[in-house]
Amino acid sequence: MLSKNTIKYIQSLRLKKFRQKYRNFVAEGEKIALEILQGQELIIEGLYALPEWLEKNSSFLTIDPSKIHAISTKDLDRISSLKTPNKVVAVCNIPTYSLEIPLLNNSLTLYLDGIQDPGNMGSILRIADWFGLPYVFCSSGCVDIYNPKVIQSSMGAFLRVQTLEKDIEGLKTQCPDLTIFAAVLDGLNVFSTTLPSKGLLVIGNEGKGISPQAQAATTVRLTIPKGPKGGAESLNAAVATGILCSAFLNKG
Amino acid sequence: MLSKNTIKYIQSLRLKKFRQKYRNFVAEGEKIALEILQGQELIIEGLYALPEWLEKNSSFLTIDPSKIHAISTKDLDRISSLKTPNKVVAVCNIPTYSLEIPLLNNSLTLYLDGIQDPGNMGSILRIADWFGLPYVFCSSGCVDIYNPKVIQSSMGAFLRVQTLEKDIEGLKTQCPDLTIFAAVLDGLNVFSTTLPSKGLLVIGNEGKGISPQAQAATTVRLTIPKGPKGGAESLNAAVATGILCSAFLNKG
Q1: CA of A223 to nearest chain B CA: how many angstroms apart?
Q2: How far apart are the C-alpha atoms of A208 and A165, rounded to whole Å?
């Protein structure tokens, strides 16, 4: 049985304040747990799982045995933030990534300027992972990458995409050669503009769009053209990110 | 004050069973209510709003006054399905759309084959609206278009995109000339395939992909190619839909 303190500690990691204090976060579910165990990108602080799961997956349990805890369904319910808890919960260290300027200068990367919806954040990490973008930068106004809902909806992409919180002016000072593109509603048609396969693409907040700081840093403003009979006011932020990334990377 | 029966009736419309029984659904919030009042695509059964909202927007209230109800914040809380109810709730008739075969044959349209997530469904309707697709077909396994979460996340797109529930074999029999494309993980590279600007594009379920029925009906299997360093298993269904639609409609 888990101690009250352990349960309280794991539950506290649902809040950003405690994730930042302890530099730990929670990843749940069989698929993600196995990816973490096999991938070795992350340091596991504790693995909490039903006994039958531990038995079935014993060959993957190569971490320090003192970190592995067989728990009851009742305890799993307590520490899980899912409606339907799924056999295993991993408490992991939040990784710290460092920025390689040459890699940044030679790649397409994303700057998320206040993305608020955890589902959008997860979907955007999946896009970055799918297209192999090395970095996703987040403004301080973004939903936390290690929010349980982001972790769930990113489907493991958070393991492979390096995410860094940066203000855009600082990033521009650090990398003066970077061309900064921004997704806006009144920019150049992205499909008829000649695009490089590198640069920083800014995606704005779901409601408010691009911040004044990011607007000021932007070199090229891009728009996904509406169809002749199109009526929507905007596309979902993750959908727009996907379309723009594919316009940069796939020129037919 | 609203009667208990009215409150119960509006609350019942959160469930598909009652929406189908009464052929009504609920749309909430100022923006959508004003779009519905101005657009006249939908028949409003009842408009329930705070008195100050009705006063401020009196010039738009051109419907039968017996259908307009000033309500208290307390009653708004009761009938709303939002965490933060937003001033106005409209109960509307579910529209019935009829299929124009020549329009279908000459357009890009979508077939949603078991899309389950309301946020994805809403985002896909926004894509269809943005690009001006005339129809979105849904299999019987999809989340209901008139689910409150779909209505919210579609941001009014449900007013402009005609949605029809159809089984794919029936649709193929009805329109034998239709080329059916499907989004899969092992098809032709969508960016190096010559695509028409018309056809039916099948998007599969978030977890299970395309159903055997839709597989059998498919003419061309398409894939969004992963980047050389890409790692994700898949893209979010709405993101994939956006990328594919833009590949069909924008050839640079």
Answers
A1: 12
A2: 20
